[in-house]
Write a sequence for this structure.
């Protein structure tokens, strides 16, 4: 069995995180996944690759991002709240960390174009950005419903030169965009790299994306004067949470992932195989994957990364849910208390702190590091709709 | 004799088993039955639509097996189920394989279950007396082909193109090359599928392999409202084309095939 300390630290043997993970993909994709695992292992061990990525993260993406004390909210809530400001990274979210690493890897592997799925559009924008920077093509699959509610990000992607392909199947959201991106990859495995945006999918993606997002947790730990009592992040597929947790898994800090009530695979799901991995999945009694329903397009996903499923199963991380109404309230409260408009996705973590502070779940006086995964410009139309 | 394996999505209409019986009458060697899944990652738009339509009618694995029970006395050809890993594992591979076998299913194809993940299903299938038919692709390296050929003992399914299921205007030469590579390492018969649409393509695939799966081209007609009688004609024309190609292949064999 994987021990607690190796979780979030090492490459998973055979792509397994305890009972979860694996590589449940068509035979057509197995050689590509295997080649990707080898290429990432080599690149990650190559000081030249690492220093080039670190340089890009610093001079291009704006890292390190600050750890901002939320002084007013802390005083109101009776906890010490520190915000890891991924909203200040280039393109407006933590997605850039993963995308720069994978795009560099794709170029190193001789690929000429990137294929990506996107929900809220943050990963799509980050992919389009990295493609422009590194001279690669980019095709982004996005559910028709998400295109309607995230118009700003669609315009950003096309401005950056990416092709945005509307996905009309199923629920027309992230789940279906992921299916379509994988189908597109099967048809062009030689030239295209599938730049998966979260810690889901077949091995090596959950491991690779967690490693590329580890910078969030590593920085936060360096920036924090003491070990926090609680580390909290929102969870859809779970990439910002995995990267944040990775920096604190070997400390005494509680790790809390906050799910959308309508897309809570950890809280309401059961083990299943979807999008290439065994993990927790929202599904009906027959094993058909059900549609998530969240105000935050980036969390509108019925699955979760397999390492989260494992962290939950062994009790190292805890998962909570908040409702859309709590999330909208959290965006406003953070904006008016701290002058920071965060993304609806990130506001899930804020909403849990607002609810739990002063209760046994988050006692008064707790030190909390919260990853603010992205900024909220893209959500203003949705927020107006919610207010009407 | 080259096998012809037409496909039908289980539960696509109230009387979907009429298609199955029509295929049999038209000369199908075996019939592939799709158990629809919400996220068919390897399927193109036709099978996606067929799956969605079936699921929206309330189809379940149990309802498909129940429908099959009603026509069991009339079915003489082997039945092959194709479905995705989540449905196989949902209750347990053991329960799933046993229920299939009890319903008279002979074999199982799971497109998102590569050999590396297949062990528990292979054991469950063998215990239930089901053949697990593994898939190989044009990109599968030779050493891996050998590992895959060691899994099960009936057909091997050769995915003829790098892409999803769906009709194509040309089959390309990948199918023939792949079938030849498989035949170089195993005596197991090779089924060729993905993109076989017309009688001419079926004949072409039939010369390369031991059997041909035709799915999207038939399901497109079903989605467009074709009757079982109409599909019987379509499958009969595929069977005739295959028969001609087999004669041709036999003639070739009598010469120097190399």
């Amino acid at each position: 069995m994987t021990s607690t300390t190796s979780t979030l630290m090492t490459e998973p043997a055979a792509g397994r995180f305890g009972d979860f993970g694996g590589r449940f993909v068509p035979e057509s994709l197995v050689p590509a996944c295997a080649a990707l695992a080898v290429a990432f292992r080599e690149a990650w061990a190559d000081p030249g690759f690492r220093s080039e990525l670190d340089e890009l993260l610093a001079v291009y993406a704006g890292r390190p991002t600050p750890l901002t004390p939320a002084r007013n909210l802390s005083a109101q809530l009776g906890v010490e709240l520190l915000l890891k400001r991924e909203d200040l990274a280039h393109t407006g979210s933590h997605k850039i960390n993963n995308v720069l690493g994978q795009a560099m890897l794709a170029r190193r592997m001789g690929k000429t174009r990137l294929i990506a799925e996107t929900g809220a559009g943050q990963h799509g924008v980050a992919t389009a950005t990295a493609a422009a920077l590194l001279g690669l093509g980019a095709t982004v699959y996005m559910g028709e419903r998400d295109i309607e509610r995230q118009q700003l990000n669609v315009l950003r992607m096309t401005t950056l030169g990416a092709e945005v392909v509307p996905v009309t199947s199923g629920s027309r959201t992230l789940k279906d965009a992921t299916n379509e991106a994988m189908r597109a990859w099967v048809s062009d495995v030689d030239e295209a790299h599938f730049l998966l945006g979260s810690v889901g999918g077949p091995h090596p993606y959950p491991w690779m994306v967690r490693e590329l997002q580890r910078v969030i947790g590593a920085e936060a730990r360096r920036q924090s004067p003491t070990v926090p009592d609680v580390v909290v992040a929102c969870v859809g597929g779970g990439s910002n949470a995995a990267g944040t947790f990775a920096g604190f898994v070997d400390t005494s800090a509680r790790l809390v992932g906050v799910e959308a009530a309508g897309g809570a695979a950890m809280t309401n799901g059961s083990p299943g195989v979807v999008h290439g991995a065994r993990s927790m999945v929202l599904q009906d009694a027959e094993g058909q994957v059900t549609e998530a329903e969240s105000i935050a397009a980036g969390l509108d996903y019925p699955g979760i990364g397999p390492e989260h499923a494992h962290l939950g199963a062994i009790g190292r991380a805890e998962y909570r849910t908040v409702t859309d109404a709590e999330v909208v309230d959290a965006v406003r409260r953070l904006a008016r208390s701290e002058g920071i408009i965060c993304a609806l996705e990130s506001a899930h973590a804020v909403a849990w702190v607002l609810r739990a502070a002063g209760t046994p779940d988050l006692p008064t006086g707790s030190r909390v590091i919260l990853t603010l995964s992205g900024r909220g410009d893209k959500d203003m139309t949705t927020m107006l709709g919610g207010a009407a | 004799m080259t096998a012809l394996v037409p496909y039908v999505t289980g539960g696509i209409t109230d009387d979907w088993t009429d298609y199955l019986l029509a295929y049999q009458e038209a000369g199908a060697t075996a019939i592939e039955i799709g158990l629809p899944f919400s996220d068919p990652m390897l399927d193109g738009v036709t099978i996606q639509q067929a799956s969605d339509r079936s699921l929206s009618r309330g189809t379940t694995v149990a309802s498909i097996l129940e429908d099959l029970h009603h026509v069991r006395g009339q079915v003489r050809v082997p039945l092959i189920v194709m479905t995705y890993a989540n449905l196989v594992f949902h209750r347990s591979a053991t329960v799933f394989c046993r229920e299939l076998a009890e319903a008279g299913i002979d074999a199982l194809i799971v497109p998102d279950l590569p050999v590396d993940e297949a062990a528990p299903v292979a054991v469950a299938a063998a215990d239930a007396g089901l053949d697990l038919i593994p898939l190989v692709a044009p990109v599968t390296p030779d050493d891996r082909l050998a590992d895959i050929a060691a899994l099960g003992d009936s057909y091997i399914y050769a995915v003829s193109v790098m892409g999803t299921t769906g009709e194509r205007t040309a089959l390309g030469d990948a199918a023939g090359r792949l079938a030849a590579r498989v035949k170089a390492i195993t005596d197991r018969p090779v089924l060729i599928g993905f993109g076989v649409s017309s009688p001419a393509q079926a004949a072409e695939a039939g010369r390369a392999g031991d059997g041909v799966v035709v799915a999207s081209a038939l399901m497109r007609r079903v989605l467009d409202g074709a009757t079982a009688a109409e599909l019987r004609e379509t499958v009969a024309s595929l069977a005739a084309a295959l028969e001609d190609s087999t004669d041709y292949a036999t003639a070739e064999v009598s010469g120097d095939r190399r």
